[in-house]
Each structure stands twice: as C-alpha cells, then as structure tokens.
C-alpha cells in the first residue's frame, strides 16, 4: 500500500549514478593525498606534524558540516545545498593546489570538507525519491561507492604525486568537483517535498530529534559500529606488526579486507532490503559481526593466531557495517519526514564523535606488542554494544509512533 508521502515522491528522480558519485567524492579527499604528506611538508617549508593537522582538522570540519548540512537541506532544499557545497569544494581544492604556504593550505583544506555535505544530502535525496525498502537498497548501493573511494584514493594520489607532483592531486579533485557540479546542475532536481524557512530554529529541530528514542537507538548502533571499525584500524598495526615482519605492503593488503567486507555488506543490504524488515536486517548485521569476531577471539585464545584468520574474522566488521549503514540511515530519517536531512546529518556527527570516543578509550588499553586477543576482545565489546542498540531499535520499531 502506498503512503501519502510516497505518492508525492518526484516522478523523475536523479539517476542512481549521481548519488553514487556524490557519495564517493564526499570521502575521496580523506585518503587521496596521504601518500604525499611528506612532499607537501617539504614544498611548503614546514614540519610533518603541522601538515598532519590537515587530517585531524579535516575530520573536525567534516563532523561540523555533516551536522548542519542536513538541517540546511530541510530548510532550503537538497539541490541548493549540493550546489553550494560542491562549489566551495572546487574553490578550496584550487586553493590547496596553489597554496604558497602552510597557512593557506590548511585553511583551504578545512573548506574542502564542505564536500561532506554531499553524502548526507544524497542519502536524504534517495529517501525522498524511494519507498522505505527500495531506499535501503539504493542507499546500500550508493554506500559501495562511499566505501570504494577511500580504498582507491591512496593509489590514485600516489600515482599522481609521482608523475605530476602533489599539487596535481588537488587539481584533480577540483576537476572531479567541477564535473560533479555540472552533473548536479543538469540532473539534480529538487527532491524535498516541503523545503522552506518556516520550521523553527536549528536548535529546535535538533531538540525534537534528540528527544526521540528511535533516533537514539539507530544512532547509538551506528556510533558503536563506527567505534568497532576505529578500534580495529588503530589497533591492527600495533598487534600484527610482529606477525608480518614489518611489511607495510602486507599490512595494507590484509587491512583492505575490511573495506572489502563493507562493500560486500552494502551489496547484501541492497539485495535483502526488499525482503526483510529494516530492524531485522540491522540485528542480523550486528549478530554477523559479533559472530565473526567471537570466532576470531576463540582462535586467538586457544592458539597462536596467524594474520589470515585474524583479518578474516575482522572482515566481518566491514560486512556488518556495510549492512548497518543504509539501515541506520533510513532508521534515523523515518522519525520525522520534515526533519529527514537534520536527522541524517546529526546522526552522522554523533556517530563520528561516538566512534572516536570509543577508539580513544580502547587506545589507552593497547600498545605495541599487545596480544591479538586483547584487540579482538575490545572490538567484540564495541560490536556487542552495537548489537544491544540494534535490539533496542527493533523494540522501538515495534511500538506505534506518537
């Protein structure tokens, strides 16, 4: 049965490829320039530690952009936010490419984070143009681009840096942004059913969302799932360095199994979304992650675990998160039709902050040479919290909305 909201959905939504491109470009700048950080420091005559601020500063700026961009898209529409964020990104990328000193580079790098708005707005636009189950499927496929871009980013950046110098990386980002801007101008029609300024303050919108048990259930699940990934990313090099003989190439190969698992999980979300209820997919995703990590912990406790089974068990982190991301995105947007953008943006910011807090806490318990079982126990603990939140979400979804 078609709901009144579904019946009003735009008849000619933007192509799925537009949403995939928006999702991919929103995260490509995070990793694409990492191989040339030493070159940037040398060219701009500064220390590596100062250039490294571009990583932490970009993360903070991204969280801020995610928090406000969704709310802006509710108020002014999806299309203006996309056009504005991509335009700022293009100008900032040109600024990075031409930066004469480290101050200009860092300022422009922070403004590059404007592109992060494209991910949350793409998710909301998919929801605007799809029914609930089809939206989970389409978000799952778009998330595959979001997961793949950071994987290919270092290889792309390294090749450009070696051939044309570090500035060419930011020139390439400006070109990609320009192409996306042209595509958005031509193909990104307004998808919001009720944009307009008369909806109260941003603080009022956020208070409504923060008072929703459904919003918190899904957001906490995503925060703990993100924390699980962050703990793994920070801990795996510490506990596995001795097992791999110090080979960074081997470590990179094994760690790529986790984002590969995310892509697989996103694909599975697209396949099963139309067959299972939303919260059922979420619970299955978290059980899958916990099961894989528990198997790895049992092996690590009983035997001297080798790198392959360790990373295979951790691949379930990626699979679970790939299934979780589109479901959580739909879950937080389902509370209020008129605050869908605010919900996905605020949820993303809380998830990043919560994941970072979990990772920082785990970092206090790990060090070089820590046993593999300690890391697996920590990621399993975070994954178990995500499972509890998923069960809470399933319980909340059984209750009628007020």
Descriptive report:
The protein is mainly α and 402 residues long. The chain has 18 helices and no strands. It has two domains: 174 residues, Up-down Bundle (Growth Hormone, Chain: A); 196 residues, Growth Hormone, Chain: A (Up-down Bundle). α14 packs across α16 and α15 packs antiparallel against α16.
List keywords for this structure.
18 helices; 0% strand; 2 domains; Growth Hormone, Chain: A; mainly alpha
Quick gist of this model?
With 402 residues, the protein is an all-alpha fold.
Name of the CATH architecture of the largest domain: Up-down Bundle
The count of helical stretches stands at 18
Distance between the termini: 21 Å
Structural class given helices, strands, pairing?
Answer: mainly alpha
Give the class-level CATH name of the largest domain: Mainly Alpha
């Amino acid at each position: 049965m078609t709901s009144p909201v579904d019946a009003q959905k735009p008849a000619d939504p933007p192509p799925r490829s537009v949403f995939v491109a928006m999702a991919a470009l929103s995260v490509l700048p995070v990793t694409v320039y990492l191989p040339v950080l030493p070159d940037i420091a040398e060219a701009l005559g500064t220390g590596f530690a100062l250039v490294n601020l571009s990583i932490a500063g970009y993360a903070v700026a991204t969280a801020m952009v995610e928090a406000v961009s969704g709310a802006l898209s509710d108020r002014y529409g999806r299309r203006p936010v996309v056009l504005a964020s991509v335009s700022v990104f293009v100008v900032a990328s040109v600024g990075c490419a031409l930066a004469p000193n480290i101050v200009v580079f860092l300022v422009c790098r922070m403004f590059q984070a404007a592109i992060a708005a494209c991910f949350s707005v793409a998710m909301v636009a998919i929801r605007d143009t799809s029914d609930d189950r089809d939206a989970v499927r389409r978000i799952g496929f778009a998330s595959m681009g979001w997961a793949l871009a950071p994987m290919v980013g270092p290889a792309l950046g390294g090749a450009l840096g070696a051939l044309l110098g570090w500035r060419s990386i930011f020139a390439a980002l400006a070109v990609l942004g320009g192409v996306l801007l042209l595509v958005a101008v031509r193909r990104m029609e307004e998808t919001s059913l009720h944009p307009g300024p008369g909806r109260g303050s941003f603080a009022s919108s956020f208070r409504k969302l923060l008072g929703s048990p459904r919003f918190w259930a899904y957001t906490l699940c995503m925060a703990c799932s993100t924390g699980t990934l962050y703990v793994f990313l920070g801990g795996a090099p510490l506990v596995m360095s001795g097992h791999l003989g110090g080979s960074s190439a081997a470590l990179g190969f094994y760690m790529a199994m986790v984002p590969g698992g995310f892509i697989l999980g996103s694909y599975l979300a697209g396949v099963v979304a139309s067959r299972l209820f939303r919260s059922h997919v979420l619970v299955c995703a978290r059980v899958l992650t916990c099961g894989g990590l528990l198997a790895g912990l049992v092996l690590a406790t009983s035997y001297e675990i080798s790198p392959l089974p360790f990373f295979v068990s951790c691949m379930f982190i990626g699979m679970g998160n790939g299934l979780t991301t589109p479901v959580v995105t739909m879950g937080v947007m389902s509370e209020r039709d008129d605050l869908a953008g605010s919900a996905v943006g605020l949820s993303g910011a809380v998830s990043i902050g919560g994941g970072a807090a979990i990772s920082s806490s785990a970092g206090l318990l790990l060090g070089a040479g820590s046993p593999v079982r300690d890391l697996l126990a920590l990621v399993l603990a975070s994954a178990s919290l995500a499972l509890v939140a998923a069960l809470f979400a399933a319980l909340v979804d059984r209750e009628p909305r007020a």
